[in-house]
Amino acid sequence: EVSTEDPETAFCTLANREDLNPEEGSIHHCLYQFTRNENLTETNKLLCDVCTQRRYGPKNNIKSEKKYVYTNAKKQMLISLAPPILTLHLKRFQQAGFNLRKVNRHIKFPEVIDLAPFCTVKCKNVAEGNTKVLYSLYGVVEHSGTMRSGHYTAYAKMRSMNNRLPDLVLRGQSPQALETEPGKGQWFHISDTQVQAVSASKVLSSQAYLLFYERLL
């Protein structure tokens, strides 16, 4: 979908990104890099239909003559609709010659994360004036092993019911504050048929592959 945005706010976020100073090797740093502002120049220039029509006339003539105008541009991927459930999938492999190698590096992640620095200033389901979009961690999937074989386990948090989350899911209502308290609840580690209570610190030290957060604010 292509839309015309106010150039003054097109690259603005709900909270100042520059205040983040994210630590390398953290989920904040991953999100910061994924949503960074990119300059499209040289071989990455953007095909501009408006510029092409100005120079060569109507589209039907453009296609027949195969003439196009490319222009420098800026690109940034930001969140335009804050989801009720946030799922973060970490890339756990890298190219090593002709082979793929698993990345075993620990990525730091918090129990409560604020997405505001990664949301567009016109985020659709955030109440006007809000500068925080908070999410609480409730599930982690971890993989042990290599690219060829391994084992998946999970951490899940037993917590009080988030009574307003269905409204957010079904009707997209913008929450002022949800009832869930992120600090309360018991974490469990699940491996096949084995279930064991664990501490939050154990969860936060895991080698996360998938992270599941639910929206609080």
Provide structural commentary.
The protein is an alpha+beta fold and 217 residues long. It has a domain at 79-171 and 183-216: Cysteine proteinases (Cathepsin B, Chain A, Alpha-Beta Complex). Helix content is 16%, strand content 30%. It has helices spanning 27-34, 49-56, 59-65, 165-171, 200-204, and strands spanning 38-40, 46-47, 70-71, 73-75, 85-89, 93-96, 99-102, 112-114, 134-145, 150-158, 186-191, 194-198, 208-215. Strands 5, 8, 9, 10, 11, 12 and 13 form a seven-stranded antiparallel β-sheet that branches. A two-stranded antiparallel ribbon has the order 1-4. The protein is globular. The model has no long low-confidence stretch (mean pLDDT 84). Residues 1-216 form the USP domain. Keywords: Hydrolase. One of its GO terms (biological process) is protein deubiquitination. GO terms for molecular function: cysteine-type deubiquitinase activity. This is UBP16 hydrolase.
